[in-house]
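To: structure desk
From: M.T.
Subject: fold request, one chain
Message: Could you run this one when you get a chance? Sequence is below, nothing fancy, just the single chain.
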Amino acid sequence: MPPPITASLLYDLIQCPHRPWMDLFGDPAKRDPESAFVRLLWEKGTLFENEVRSRLTLPPLDLSGYSDAERERRTLEAMERGSHLLYSGRLSWGDLLGEPDLLRREGSGYVAGDIKSGSGEEGAEDEARPKKQYAVQLALYTDLLERLGKSTGEKRAFVWDVRGREVPYDLAAPMGPNNPTTHWDLYREALAQARRIAARSEANLPAYGAVCKLCHWHTACLEELVQKEDLTLLPELGRSKRDLLIQELPTIGDLARCDLHRFLVGKKTLFPGLNC
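Reply: Done. C-alpha cells follow.
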C-alpha cells in the first residue's frame, strides 16, 4: 500500500519534486545528518509556535500530547462538539493525512491554519502573494475538512506568520491578474503527482538548486549529478531548462561540444520557452 500523502510531502514536492521520491525510496544510509542550521530552524519554529499559542485570546484545545490515533479521534470528537479552536489536530481520509496547527470554527464549519516562523507571503510588499509551498499544505487540510463534512464550504485557510499577522489564503482565487490558475489547481496537480510518486509510477531526476544545501539528500544527489554531468550544475540552468534540453543535450559535455546554431531559428531556439 502506498504511503499517505501528507502536507510536508506536498511542501517538499513544490520545493523539489525529487525530495519526496528520495524520502520514500532512497537509501537511508545515504542521508546526510541534519545540519546545525536546520536544527536551529526547527527549534526556532517550535519556539515561535509556542509563543503564538501563549498569545491566543481564547486558549485552544491542545491535542499535541496524544498518540496519533488518539489525537485523530479527539479531533473529530471536538469538531462534533463545536470546539472553537483546536491545536495540533489530526485528520485523515483515504490516502490523505493532515496535521494542521490550528482548526478554527467559523459558522458551522472549520478553517485550517498553520503557524509559520517565516513570512506568510512572498514578493515585494505591493505585489505580495501566498507562498505556493504553504498553499498546498493548507489546501490538503481544506480538502480533508471537505471530505469529512467539516468545512465552511469555502476554499480558504490562513497562516499566522513571524510578523504577528494572520495572512488569509484564498485558495480559489487566481494566482495573479494574468494567471487564472488557482492555488487549489496547484494543489490538485501536486496531489496527483505525489500519488504517482508514492505509487512508484513516476520517477524523476535530481536537479541542483538553491534549496539543495539544506536538504538531507544533498550529498547523495550531488554525487549523482556530478557523475552524470547534469546540466543543472551550470549557473542559471535549473530543472525546467534542463528538462527542455535533456533529450538533445543530456550532459554538460554534450552542451560544450555541440554546434548551438543547429538549434536556432532566427532569435528563437527549437526548445519551447527557451529563447536567446
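Reply (cont.): Residues 5-198 form a domain with the Lambda Exonuclease; Chain A fold (CATH 3.90.320). Let me know if you need anything else for the meeting.
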